[in-house]
Amino acid sequence: MSVYSRSLSAPQQKLLDLFAGLPMPILAAPMFLVSGPQLLNACCQAGIVGSMPAPNARTVEQLDQWLAQIVVERAAAKTQGQVWAPWMLNMIVHSTYNRFESELELVKRYQPPIVSTALGTPRRVLDSVHGYGGVVIADVITPALARKAVDAGVDGLVLVCNGAGGHTGSYNPFAFVAEVREFWDGPLGLAGAVSNGRDIHAAQVLGCDFALVGTRLVAAHESLAENAYRDMLVDCSMDDVTTTKAVSGVLATWMKPSLEKAGIDPAADNRTAIDFSGDIASANKAWKHVWSAGQGVGQIKRSYSVVELVDELHQGYLASQHRSH
Questions:
Q1: Tens digits of per-residue pLDDT, 56-75?
Q2: With helix as H, strand as E and coil as C, how does 232-280 read?
Q3: How far apart (Å, rounded) are the C-alpha atoms in residues 8 and 6?
Q4: Is residue 136 helix, strand or coil?
């Protein structure tokens, strides 16, 4: 937690409380075409906030089934006395995304404790999520977008910094956190190459309340990634990733070998119009054939279970805290 005095709304305090009861303040990043119900629930069972993007389900009907699976498995665990971490659903709120209204109806039915928004204003979901007692966080890549999300009434921010896999930012986390903290006392998350326990502790030292872990979880057995994807993660290092708008029209970080295999020139920035209409998980979309990774990819030496990874992160987190005292 940050050391300064904070004046928080009830939903903001609720968001902080969700992380306060966990061994580590970690949110599993919602990763496109990677995060599904199995990875989400495995994260929650291991003690970190699990998540998935709604568009990972090919249809609204499949999303309905996935959300039902999540809540049923959580309920079963609760009857056995197990305490799982909270969960989060990520939604695209871009104007071209034509499943938004249908997905919002499912959100109101299944009531994820946390909803995050990407590629647009969180204002579109706030009333619905607050209506059932949930909280809303927004992914932002600039201080200007952070201000817009704050003005919209968001409960928490995730600063997507340089080094993040998938859709990414371009700012250094030191400068980004400092500037946003000049106008925002509320819950703050840090995303971008968070790969070990030291990184999680460092995010707190910078003034953040939680950190997002993404790329490390792609290699987990429970992810939707195919084995060739996991193998490429093991083989790649920081030198093997690059950022480009050529795939989706939005700046994103990809592994160079996968771009080469798909015949995509990363220098072709700005040639692709942003379009999230239709079935965005379809094989016809360019991003279906390329694989993302953040700059922390070099720390992946093998595949593992979520439990193994979380244990590794926790040991490193405690060791980092011990060294700082």
A1: 999 999 999 999 999 999 99
A2: HHHHCCHHHEEEECCCCCCCEEEEHHHHHHHCCCCCCCCCCCCCCCCCC
A3: 6
A4: strand
Read off the pLDDT band of 211 (50, 70, 90): very high
Q: How many domains, in total, are found in the chain?
A: 1
Question: With contact defined as beta carbons under 8 Å apart, do 26 and 213 qualify?
Answer: yes
Q: What is the CATH number of the domain that holds 190?
A: 3.20.20.70
Q: What's the confidence (pLDDT) of residue 3?
A: 42
Whether 64 maps to a domain, the answer reads yes
Looking at the predicted structure, is the pLDDT value of residue 2 above 90? no
Q: Is residue 277 part of a domain?
A: no
Token pair for residue 206?
């910078």
Q: Is residue 276 part of a domain?
A: no
Question: How many residues does the structure list for the chain?
Answer: 325
* 179 contact partners, CB below 8 Å, separation of at least 6: 143
| pTM for this predicted structure | 0.92
Alpha-carbon span 225 to 129, nearest angstrom: 30
Domain that holds residue 106: 10-224+295-324
Does 213 reside within a domain? yes
Q: From its phi and psi, is residue 4 left (phi > 0), alpha (psi between -120 and 50) or beta?
A: beta
Site of tokens 């999520």? 129
Residue whose C-alpha is closest to residue 84's, from 45, 133, 135: 45
